[in-house]
Write a structure and sequence with these properties.
Blueprint: E1 4-8, H1 12-24, E2 28-32, H2 35-40, E3 49-53, H3 61-71, E4 76-81, H4 86-95, E5 99-102, H5 107-137, H6 148-162, E6 167-171, H7 178-187, E7 196-200, H8 206-214, E8 215-216, E9 228-229, H9 231-234, E10 239-243, H10 250-262, E11 264-265, E12 274-275, E13 279-284, H11 288-293, H12 299-305, E14 308-311, H13 321-337, E15 343-344, H14 346-354, H15 360-374, E16 379-380, H16 411-428, H17 433-439, H18 444-453
Parallel strand pairs: 1-2, 1-3, 3-4, 4-5, 6-13, 6-14, 7-10, 10-13, 15-16
Antiparallel strand pairs: 8-9, 11-12
Helix pairs in contact: 6-7, 10-12, 13-15, 16-17, 17-18
Length: 457
């Protein structure tokens, strides 16, 4: 799409010269010589750039600029005048002019000013469009559900987004959508124009996690070669989402508690107190009351996090939402993979309804994605669904009876076995990853790697 330029200038020679230069660049140019004519063009569609003379035969350029800004906030306006005063320049800038050019001007200088101004407005429009996309992606409607528990959740989200509450605690099993809810709250709040940053508290060692959250000063530790801002500082005015906060190391729990109480912190190795305004949202699928009883989580931190608590119900408790979500994912992946999927059979729906969904919405999404990929017709049938509890049990846990099948044991069967064990561990621990890792004799990092590999995380 070509750039549209409006030239408002009563001197024919200047209009002609500007028109020639801009048309050489491939711009679409409209030229008028009066303020009234300029105002008459405002209904013809948006202009990217307006070159506006200050002194016109019927009104001043400032009057045109004022009317222009009432109907279009994006047009870049460059004010031109041979009668420059500081007062006029200041008034033009206040009304939204990007630049103030004094006649006579050098064409090369003017074109450089135009390029800089157009680049600025291009970036501004891209940011605005990105925000519109984020608003669509993370609007309340992006959370799918009609079950009464979900309708109540939507109302809670709206209330929290509207208020200035500074701490929100999201609780629910793995895969219920805690990350999505955190983003929806942020993007529907007054903080939407500022940063949303998230961090998984189990993804880093204690030292690195502290540095990520609070930042560090140069020389604070061996590899600290320069000062670094932490996420709380970066997100000033926005939101920090702490995922799996239930597994945060005890020493860091104390520092997080202090920050939540004072909204101040020191960088690692620093002495200066830094105050920030952030909304902190934390999430966990862990039973924190049990962790408190075991001495693994601070009771006072739970109280401080639990200012506003939001519980996300498991998919198995949401009734026909399973069908609603399955239809949504089928349509989404059919479009993405260019597959002619138009429906899900009733037999397939029945299998989906009867499954317990230990991985919740995330697991359902992965099941439907695979079904869309593997389906041969325009309908997802029951046999196209690979559900965890329906996987074959290739081995019994009696080592003396284990026999290699005659046809051998291929990698797909090994994958199915590992998937089934992971699902059983999550079911038995109600989605608690720390306890599931303990059952499988794995470190938490190794468990998370396997969960990600099988689409359960």
């Amino acid at each position: 799409m070509s750039i549209r330029v409006l030239i408002v200038e009563d001197e024919h020679a200047i209009r002609w010269m500007l028109r020639q230069k801009f048309e050489e660049r491939g711009y679409e140019v409209a030229e008028v010589e009066t303020g009234a004519a300029a105002l008459g063009t405002l209904g013809d569609g948006a202009f990217d750039l307006a070159l506006l003379d200050y002194r016109l035969p019927d009104m001043t350029g400032l009057e045109v600029l004022r009317r222009l800004r009432q109907v279009d906030q994006d047009t870049v306006v460059i004010m031109m005048t041979a009668y420059s005063t500081i007062e006029v320049a200041v008034e033009a800038i206040k009304l939204g002019a990007a630049h103030f050019v004094t006649k006579p001007f050098q064409m090369a200088d003017l074109l450089l000013t135009v390029d800089q101004a157009l680049e600025t407005t291009k970036l501004r429009r891209e940011v605005r469009e990105l925000r519109r996309q984020m608003s669509r992606e993370f609007g309340i409607d992006s959370i799918i559900g009609r079950h009464p528990s979900m309708l109540a959740l939507f109302e809670t989200i709206r209330q929290v987004a509207r208020t200035g509450v500074s701490t929100v605690f999201l609780r629910g099993e793995t895969g219920t959508g805690k990350d999505l809810v955190a983003r929806v709250i942020h993007h529907n709040s007054e903080r939407a124009g500022n940063s949303f940053v998230n961090i998984t508290c189990t993804a880093l060692s204690e030292t690195l996690l502290e540095s990520e959250l609070f930042g560090h000063e140069r020389g604070a530790f061996t590899d600290a070669k320069m000062q670094k801002k932490g996420l709380f500082e970066i997100a000033d005015g926005g939101t920090v989402f702490l995922d799996e906060v239930g597994d945060m190391p005890p020493a860091l729990q104390a520092k997080l508690l202090r920050f939540l109480e004072e909204r101040r912190f020191r960088r690692v190795g620093g002495t200066k107190e830094i105050a920030v305004d952030v909304r902190v949202m934390a999430a966990t699928n862990r039973d924190l009351e049990d962790a408190i009883a075991r001495g693994q989580f601070r009771r006072d931190l739970l109280y401080r996090l639990n200012v506003v608590s939001i519980y996300l119900p498991p998919l198995r408790a949401r009734g026909d939402d399973v069908r609603l979500l399955a239809d949504h994912f089928a349509a989404r992946f059919a479009t993405e993979f260019k597959k002619p999927i138009v429906r899900i059979s009733e037999a397939a729906y029945e299998r989906l309804r009867n499954y317990s969904w230990p991985g919740n919405v995330r697991e359902l999404r992965n099941v439907i994605e695979r079904a869309v990929l593997l389906s041969k017709g325009d309908t997802i049938e029951a046999d196209d669904l690979v559900l965890g509890r329906d996987e074959p049990h290739p081995w019994a846990w009696d080592l003396e009876r284990m026999v290699l099948p005659p046809e051998g044991f291929d990698l797909e069967k090994l994958r199915q076995l590992e998937l089934r064990l992971l699902q059983q561990a999550l079911e038995r621990t109600h989605g608690n990853q720390t306890q599931a890792a303990r059952l499988l004799n794995l470190s938490r990092d190794r468990l998370r790697y396997r969960l990600q590999k099988h689409g359960l995380l």
